[in-house]
């Protein structure tokens, strides 16, 4: 499915080059859920952006179903079958929610279809379907809406960057149910970046990233006890 080989990503800060992702290699199998966790600032979101093509790798290789997508931009990677949910979703003034969902699905969606997608992520569909995707929506509403756009059509691989951030407990439960449905079908692979123990508990495998490197990777039952032993360094995020 996804194979990452010796991936490196650097930034230039005030004339000084710094490695954010350092020679990372891993795989995600078909239908597998990999949860990536670790300290803030360790490189998790940067890795996700490189995988999606938002940032360009300085070295290494990315393969999807054996196809080398390293040189693909974000549009080509989306067409190849990768979906992505940002940690801070973008807003689109003038675009309505139902239009955004139709664009994400690649076809014109009916009102019942849009309502079903919105309800699935904990939004009261009738109140949102004609709203604009602008500053009138809260951060939590935007987060849920963006996750709905990712779920609007099937992908080979879906990447979610801290899907729990900024949402209430009830909506979080709805999202967990959505992830469980996707995972149980084994039709799409999932990469979830999270500090939330309930999400980590869903993983087939866990990858710990510290200082841009893989600190540990393996089956949940092997890695999770190590994370819990670390205590406050990996405290779960609080939900609203």
From TrEMBL:
Keyword Phosphoprotein: no
GO MF annotation, one: ATP hydrolysis activity
Class of this enzyme: hydrolase
The entry's keywords: ATP-binding, Hydrolase, Nucleotide-binding
Protein EC: 3.6.3.-
Keyword Ribosomal protein annotated: no
Protein name in the entry: Energy-coupling factor transporter ATP-binding protein EcfA1
